[in-house]
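Q: Predict the bound structure with uridine-5'-diphosphate-glucuronic acid.
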Amino acid sequence: MHIAMIGCGYVGLVSGACFADFGHSVTCVDSDPQRIDALLGGRVPIFEPGLAELVARNVEAGRLAFTTALAPAVGEADAVFIAVGTPSRRGDGFADISHVFAAAREIASALRGFTVVVTKSTVPVGTSDEVERIIRATNPAADVVVASNPEFLREGAAIGDFKRPDRIVIGTTDERAREVMSEVYRPLFLNTSPLLFASRRAAELIKYAANAFLAMKITFINEIADLCEKVGADVQDVARGIGADNRIGSKFLHAGPGFGGSCFPKDTLALVKTAQDHDAPLRLIEATVAVNDQRKRAMARRIITAAGGSVRGKAIAVLGLTFKPNTDDVREAPSLAIIRGLLDAGAEVRVHDPEGMDQARALLPEVVFCKNPYEAARGASALAIVTEWDQFRALGLPRLKGLMAQPVLVDLRNIYSARDVVRHGFRYVGIGRGDDDDLPAARLRRARRPEMPAPVALDGVGRDHVLDRRRA
Ligand code: UGA
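A: Predicted complex:
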């Protein structure tokens, strides 16, 4: 199969390199000559584990090429994927799909022979209909079918997600297009990844509904975490308990500082807007967006309280800038709202991130960028872990304690055992760890409320007992 991938951003590069690795002949096209020059020179301009090696291997094997010339690539392709960016439009949050339409216009005049044009970028329902209209208006003689094939790649795990997907969604009812798309994905199909065919509009909606559901699931457990703190329960126990129910599932139940990234915030907003436009408001998703925004800001207050109530003139260390580990992406990252809150409260913010510092520098000119966690902790009145990078999971607590102005660890990803941290002389604040976070203070609270007996043990039995008593 000959494939043209229009757009060498995140989705285009990962998908193009993976298709080439399946044995297809792939040409990746981008209008940015600098980006193409970098790729031709062997430099992959985005951070994704394993991608540089995958690109190099397939270029070497002659299956993957890069160019700014769209027409020849499209002319010889059986399938042309549109994988250009769809940023949030300023003002209304709606996805900006002007790049998709511009690509459709250019593709239209370059089509030769039967071709399937596939929208892979995340696009609002009805966009593929408009892509088809544009192509037919520009080139009425073209033998073309427009299909939708949304991607479900997670940054940092994109290659694994592409090669071992839970499902592949293809939106087309055209028989010839089904054949081409089945051939494109045949290597995965043989590996029993289900190929789900649906209408184009259903496929487009599947992508938004999937992201909105996951964002809602995270927000649900985050609110349950807040409740855990009030009633004296551990959110990780609750997540385990509900996640073991197959109907709920254990994934995406990690409570934290709120979701970020280039997808969930943008896609939830766009879906809310689409739903409002069609007079079918999605109130659950509207609430998800609002709760998540507030949550990011509330995390700054949590750190300030842990540091003693005022951070004016004090240093605060923040570990983790990216919206999650294994990426250099800081878009909509909780760290940005948290740091802004700390700066507004008068703190000197000292940060470290293994990969995200270059991207963050332009957005955070007022913070001190440090080369490792220990340098960030120097003189700090609290150290907050905002992203769960592996590098932060086993910090030398005695060394940190020796460097900090006061030993306070705010673990917004629950990657430490509260008991361990407290044993090292720290004050510990986690997320939704009502039964053991900030141990001495929690004990004090319980002592002041004799009607609420303290849990007798940290295992499930003691806590169930306490909760049962309260319910009664
Ligand atoms: C997300 C989806 O997971 C992908 O399936 C989808 O293809 C992609 O968006 C997209 O639309 O392109 P991604 O944004 O890369 O992928 O990252 P996730 O791993 O989903 O994490 C998103 C945010 O949720 C992060 O800030 C993460 O820290 C947070 N999160 C995730 C939690 O707070 N708790 C969890 O249990 C899981």
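A: The chain has a mean pLDDT of 91.
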